[in-house]
Amino acid sequence: MAMGRPRAFDADAALDRAMEVFWRHGYEGATIAQLTEVMCINPPSLYAAFGSKEGLLKAALDRYTEKRNAWMEKVLSAPTARDVAERMLMETADTQTDPANPPGCLLVQGGLACGTGSANVPFELAARRAQTEEQLRERFVRAKAEHDLGEAADPAALARYLSAITAGMGVMASSGADREALRQVAAVSLKAFEEQSKGKQAA
Fold first, then answer.
1. How crowded is residue 67: how many other Cβ atoms within 10 Å of its Cβ?
2. Which terminus, N or C, of the chain has the lesser number of Cβ atoms within 10 Å?
3. What does the pLDDT read at residue 119?
4. pLDDT value of position 203
5. What angle in degrees, to the nearest 10, is found between the helix axes of 155-174 and 179-197?
6. With the C-alpha atoms ordered 121, 125, 130, 135, is the resulting torsion angle positive or negative?
7. Is the pLDDT at 197 greater than 80, yes or no?
8. How far apart are CA 82 and CA 136, in angstroms?
9. Which residues of 116-128 are buried (b: 16+ CB within 10 A; e: fewer)?
């Protein structure tokens, strides 16, 4: 094959493989050698296509976000706020322990440890997580307008709560927690969500 030009390979398949390397090893742990090997390209081709390792991460995150948005669309389509929470929590437990994927969540796992020169990576990941939180907030605002949430319920707080719990579940999964353990967390968290969705104050 001729020397690798930026579009001489299957970009989606290459990004899927790069995404898995970042997912398993984090940004710092993923090496250029690992990335170019799984993407079946050489380093000059990687830099020509993505500019830098960080540029590749952002492209992989775009790919991941595309898939995650399709999943979130299904989550947000649940008929009630409580159903949205249950679907998100339980499916997070299932997907983050799915043996077909690395454990945990790329948006958490990718930037847990970043050193000098990659300090903006955690902020990039946080911005992606914030998108999910905003999607939840908007859904709960609608739920409140439809009287599906209590008058005193706080859509932003409920969205922040679910985001924090699912991020924590990602850390648990990456540390070896199994599906049953995550489903137990999901069940307890759902009960807390139900209380707060009625507008009750935490003790």
1. 12
2. C
3. 62
4. 38
5. 170
6. positive
7. yes
8. 12
9. eebeebeebbeeb
